[in-house]
Amino acid sequence: MARIFCYKNLSIAFQLKRPTTHFHPSSLHSQSSAPIDKEVETLYRIITITQTPEGLKQALKSSQIKLSNDLIDKVLKRVRFSHSNPLQALEFFKYADKRKGFYHTGFSLDTILYVLGRNRKFDKIWEVLVEMKRKDQSLITPRTVQVVLGRVAKVCSVRETVESFWGFKRLLNEFGVDCFNALLRALCQEKSMSDARNVYHRLKYKFRPNNQTFNILLSGWKSSEDAEVFFKEMRDLGVEPDVVSFNCLVDVYCKGREMEKAFRVVEEMREKDITPDVITYTSLIGGLGLVGQPDKARHILKEMREYGCYPDAAAYNAAVRNFCIAKRIGDAYSLMDEMVRNGLSPNATTYNVFLRSFFWINDLKSSWTLYQRMKETGCLPSTQSCMFLIRLSRRHEKVEMALELWDDMMERGFGSYILVSDVLFDLLCDLGKLAEAERCFLQMVNKGQKPSNVSFRRIKVLMELANKQEALKLLSEKMAAFRSSTQLIQHDKVEYEQSS
Fold first, then answer.
1. Least reliable range by pLDDT among 107-111, 178-182, 367-371, 447-451
2. Quick check: is 461 in a domain?
3. 94 to 91, 138, 184: CA distances (angstroms)
4. Can you list the pairs that 430-437 forms with residues at least 24 positions away whose Cβ atoms lie under 8 Å?
5. Which residues neighbour 462 within 8 Å (Cβ) at sequence distance 6 or greater?
6. Is residue 320 part of a domain?
7. What domain range includes position 482?
8. CA dist list (Å): 117 to 111, 125, 152, 156, 433
9. Which of 140, 159, 342, 457 lies most in the core, judged by the most C-beta atoms within 10 Å?
10. In which ranges do the PPR repeats occur (predicted)?
11. Percent of all residues in the chain with a pLDDT value above 90, rounded to a whole number
């Protein structure tokens, strides 16, 4: 894996003079009369439909939409959750940044970095960071470090992740324990806890660990023994546990089915005048489900109210999951209805609990009914939801349902096109639905998403058998464009590293 940072270019960039004064207007222009949601959709479609930076800039100018921080934040958020073309999203980000007197928000910076990192455009991440250092260093925060290192750690080694971490030292005004915590969080989430522990012990003398440091490490342990060791070290260093620390300990006990220890920790919290919160109770609910006590877990929902703590969607989801695991779907639905009566909206996680159960019992009808309910209530399915639905549709050879799901994804921008398309193309090719496969293929590439080579080969075989040479030529050109783009990026990356 290539190095992520080019320190020579970094040193040169730091010599650029930063403006002595500037301001952060909440809006560069006044909002147009059109509702902002409509403007978000218009800009999102421009990003997904245009294929070149020049085409994007021209389309943005022609739209006559007045850009504001709020609008840009919402557009980039839309791009993030729809897995749209990252390079066109970057061009949109740059286009806004070049407007006279305009400054991005920290949210828009972190969002574009996440989008680029998810697509492994690390060289582009570096370019953005250097530019932000020059224009507005205050936007680069420990949160930014967390976003970037999270994507780096996902595909790079621990050593390279730590090297990237040190690369931020000259990007921030304060490079302290908050950045150290961002590194540990990235390692806990994307690597192993042993990796995080080793890095912690190696660097703990350079950064004074605080409460958050230990909470990050405590939240990652799967074994109670490891968690207890760090809990003891925390106290030995004079760092007092807070409600988050205790919650981590309760959670690890619950996941280990050590419910007696978990309840003892809750009692200790009360003795220390640390009030258990909704996260504490949610862990207990989940743990009781693991030991086969869904009814006792449901009672926790009532008990917590007596202590003045009201269940949120996550607490209800844990209780719903318990009944689904116990194959008591009726009780699970009853809890979901109770959520609604209490003013809580079931979210994608709630529905995924049901969809997983229906998937394992091969119940397409119930899954599809639930999907229609999601659409009616405005709940966008997650990628996991889409995968349950598309796999069931393929299993039952329901082309109409699969295409309805795909069209909804195209229109509303949810789910991973790449993962879902592999299953969809398998279904369409198995049943000889060549016209539908071609349409979905073109929809996908027009969104800037590359179909897998396996899917392309399957469609190619069918087109050759059907003697659809013109259509095959078009699809081949689309795939070649993706390959050329990838080769160009790799070439630029090699040049970038050689320059260092």
1. 447-451
2. yes
3. 5, 18, 31
4. 430/397, 431/397, 431/399, 432/462, 433/399, 434/459, 434/462, 434/463, 434/466, 434/468, 436/399, 436/403, 437/462
5. 429, 432, 434, 437
6. no
7. 416-500
8. 10, 7, 7, 11, 35
9. 140
10. 242-276, 277-311, 312-346, 347-381
11. 72
Statement: the pTM of the whole predicted model exceeds 0.85: no
The length of the chain is: 500
* Tokens, residue 254: 């619950």
CA 168 to chain centre: 22
Q: Where are the alpha helices (DSSP H) in 291-382?
A: 294-306, 313-325, 329-341, 348-360, 364-377
Give the span between the Cα atoms of 142 and 131, in whole angstroms: 17
Q: How confident is the model at residue 359 (pLDDT cuts 50, 70, 90)?
A: very high
Q: How far apart are CA 390 and CA 394, in angstroms?
A: 6
Please, are residues 127 and 94 in contact by the beta-carbon 8 Å criterion?
A: no
Give the single-character DSSP code of 137.
Answer: G
Is residue 40 within 8 Å of residue 32, measured between CB atoms?
A: no
Amino acid occupying residue 458: R
Chain segment 150-191, per-residue pLDDT in tens: 999 999 999 999 999 999 998 998 999 999 999 999 999 999
Whether residue 485 has pLDDT greater than 90: no
Give residue for tokens 């994804």.
Answer: 409
d(CA 31, CA 68): 7
Q: Using CA of residue 377, residue 381, residue 385, residue 390, what is the dihedral sign?
A: positive
Distances, alpha carbon 210 to alpha carbons 94, 239, 244, 248, in Å: 37, 7, 13, 16
Which position has the token pair 């349902």? 401
DSSP string, 263-304: HHHHHHHHHTT----HHHHHHHHHHHHHTT-HHHHHHHHHHH
Please tell me the total count of domains within the chain.
1
Q: What is the number of helices (H) and of strands (E) in the chain?
A: 27, 0
Region 278-297 average pLDDT: 96
pLDDT value at position 110? Answer: 95
Q: Which of 470, 393, 395, 396 is nearest to 407 (CA)?
A: 393
Q: Which pair of tokens denotes residue 138?
A: 């205050």
Tell me, yes or no, whether 281 lies in a domain: no
Q: What pLDDT sits at residue 117? A: 92
Confidence of residue 13 (pLDDT cuts 50, 70, 90): very low
Angle between helices 243-255 and 259-271 (to 10 degrees): 170
| Mean pLDDT for the chain overall | 87
User: Which is it for the CA torsion 432, 435, 436, 441, positive or negative?
Assistant: positive
Residue 284 pLDDT greater than 70, yes or no: yes
Q: What pLDDT sits at residue 413?
A: 87
